[in-house]
Amino acid sequence: MNHTIKICLPLAAMTLCFAQAFADSPGNRYNLLPRLYDSEVSAAKAYILTNHNRGNKTKDDYSNAVILDVRRIAEHVAGHPPGSYSIPFPHIWGSPKCANDNGVDPCAEGDEASGYIGYNVSADAEIGFGDADMKDGDIPLEQFVEYVETVIRDKDTPILTLCATGYRSVQAANALVKYGGYTKVRNIWEGFNGQYKYAYAGGSIFVERDENDDIVIELDGNGVEQVNTVRLDLNGDGGVTPADRDGWAYYQELPVSTKIHPKKIDQDFADLYYE
């Protein structure tokens, strides 16, 4: 199904509006295909499912769910949903900008080596989303799922994946379904940090055209064509700051913990949690 969105551009003393049809997306923030997991879930609903629905055994729901934080170790240490598991994917430590999947570190010849550790997600188009040139690690992605299986043994356990803004968590959710056979996996749409919100009329839309000349909308500043941007000051503090991002820890103001639970961290890299 196609839908029509109205885009308004302020031009001097008048406003020019035009309509553009867009195809339905799979629902995640970055329109990543395919979506192998069940669906998206809001951060607020994820909090309810993991804190206020304990003991509810309603068939086919996500009560008694667990949150799987797949952000880097350093991100988890800085703050995370209380009680969440930390099993990083695909980036475990450091930045992938200097990494590739053949074990060679292009930054090693400079003053600083990246020290990057990560999984080889570009090996699978349904996990790396067809980006064969993605800068990633050399750990087989199946190893991530194999580790999760040692922690979450019941394949019917409801799992809610979480990253910073909802990209890595989609990769992890797909991997859990495809390689692990988990039956109840949802992605926390906003992520822990979230993205800024924009006004609909006169708002910010980054327009990029793909190989079919179809319009792709981006809100992260990486678009090719840029319309005037209007970020929203959601909390009314007089300025647009990270607190206005729509994630778990910011505008939604959900609980955040810095306590490290030894039994809920990735034991293969446990020493890195205390560096």
Beta-strand segment tally: 12
The CATH C-level class name of one domain = Alpha Beta
Name the CATH architecture of one domain. Answer: 3-Layer(aba) Sandwich
Look at the structure and give the mean pLDDT: 80
Would you give the CATH topology of one domain?
Oxidized Rhodanese, domain 1
Give the overall shape: globular
N-to-C span: 50 Å
Query: What is the tally of helical segments?
Result: 5
> Which H/E pattern describes the elements?
EEEHEHEEEHHEHEEEE
Estimate the strand proportion. Answer: 15-25%
> What percent of residues adopt helix (DSSP H or I)?
10-25%
Structural class: alpha/beta
> Major β-sheet, in short?
5 strands, parallel
Any key phrases for this structure?
single chain; 275 residues; Oxidized Rhodanese, domain 1; 5-stranded parallel beta sheet; 3-stranded antiparallel beta sheet; globular; disordered N terminus
Secondary-structure map with pairings?
Blueprint (H helix, E strand, L loop, with lengths): L1 E10 L2 E10 L15 E3 L1 H9 L14 E4 L3 H6 L6 E2 L4 E3 L23 E2 L6 H4 L12 H11 L7 E4 L5 H13 L4 E4 L17 E4 L5 E4 L6 E2 L49
Parallel strand pairs: 3-9, 4-5, 4-8, 8-9
Antiparallel strand pairs: 1-2, 6-7, 10-11, 10-12
Helix pairs in contact: 4-5
